[in-house]
Amino acid sequence: MKKPKITVIGGGTGIPVILNSLRHEDVEITAIVTVADDGGSSGELRSVMQLTPPGDLRNVLVAMSDMPKFYEKIFQYRFQDGDGALSGHPLGNLIIAGIAEMQGSTYNAMQILTKFFHVTGKIYPASENPLTLHAVFKDGHEVVGESNIANYQGMIDHVYVTNTYNEEEPSASRKVVDAIMNSDMIVLGPGSLYTSILPNLVIPEIKQALLETKAEVAYVCNIMTQHGETEHFTDADHVAVLNRHLGVDVIDSVLVNIEKVPQDYMNSNKFDEYLVQVEHDFNGLRQLAKRVISSNFLHLKNGGAFHHGDSVVEELMNLVRIKHL
Fold this sequence. Notes:
Number of domains: 1
CATH class: Alpha Beta
CATH topology: Rossmann fold
Number of helices: 12
Structural class: alpha/beta
Helix content: 25-40%
Order of helices and strands: EHEHHHHHEEEEHEHHEEHEEHEEEH
CATH architecture: 3-Layer(aba) Sandwich
Strand order of the largest sheet: 3-2-1-7-8-10-12
Radius of gyration: 19 Å
Shape: globular
Strand content: 15-25%
């Protein structure tokens, strides 16, 4: 019996948690990672070298690799303030950027690094060109650039992407569409709705593939609302935004955390983008998706509220086994 094929789409700090647990299962994994990040180290490197930003790819690479902890510490080491041009850059970003320059693209760099670090599965940037994220707000105002979106006070109506350095329509990286079409399950998130998940889904080829694939499409809903993106959102609001951007109700299953985050727990200084826990609207969810899976997916760590990767993956594996029979 062939292994189930699971493709995880997103970016940020959310999907590495799922991928790290998923790589211990008997499945074929593909990660499709956003390339619209224009802040911090990734933003600097993409601006200077006109390459797809390496930061989210770096975190996914670490999550899917069996590299020893010491190697991981080296790869994730961030140069300190005062280190001149290197300040704030993780060593891994510089390695990815260097190999991308040597091999002609970040896509090629990731294929080499997946072998070098014994990665379980495949890692593809969503596009082989850096993309610019545009957010159009309910009042008609448009903000350009992912790192600028949270600074505007208002509710986002929709987002779209453009190629950063040419006028062509954004396209998916090679093999991305095939991965989606041949999957048994597509996992969206967890991660920032407008800045980690949707920048992938609004690439026309990826959007079309999601509409046509026979795969189970599962969405791992965020635990907390996010400043500048999802204030006052319920879990059903998150799903409604995804479906609206895709044009039809694509989400088959929604995974929702029902464990309460302790009121005094959140470290607002460290995780200032998080506001309050996402409220539940189960009636709304049942109208938007075929299945709602609610459980304790909460993992409290370092002052933040994260998904417990093993608990989420246990539910995903139950779904994919049914689909794969």
